[in-house]
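User: Fold this, then the next.

Assistant: Folding the first:
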Amino acid sequence: MLDAVGSSPKRIRSMVLFEAVALGLIGGIIGAAVGGFGRQGAVRAVEAVSGFPVDATFSAATLLVGVALVLAISALGALAPALQAGRRARIDRVG
């Protein structure tokens, strides 16, 4: 369908990569939010069960590394499908 509207293989590769990175970023944001709340709950549970205080501090550097890894993994995971989409056989047009 994209070929019918005149899209180029380069544009299709870019679109597939961008979509994968965007979905990875959205998933990373949701995962970080759920993980942050889950960490708080786990720390409180361990403190309640053990009776000892747990020193678990938030690190912005860890969050940034996680975001960078999510984007890199998303892009690497989409590389093969993007290349395949760019190499698709063009339909011969009559006329």
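Now the next one, as you asked:
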Amino acid sequence: MQNETENQGQQRPVAEHKSLSEQVINEYDLAVLFGISTRTLGDLRRNHELPTIYLNRTNRVYSVAEVLNWLSKRIKT
């Protein structure tokens, strides 16, 4: 079994790229993308307006596909 110092020089295998609909985005990056504060994003989440994936009590991510679907429903014509 290799120890951690031996593994430091090795690179991790590159993950396969997934299609956009299979990706997730973290809360900070989504807020930046929307041009809103994380507090505003939190308000949307707490009001159950924005579909959220809870990893644990404090860590959340958002499915890009679900966010795009949520956005398309908010388009006013």
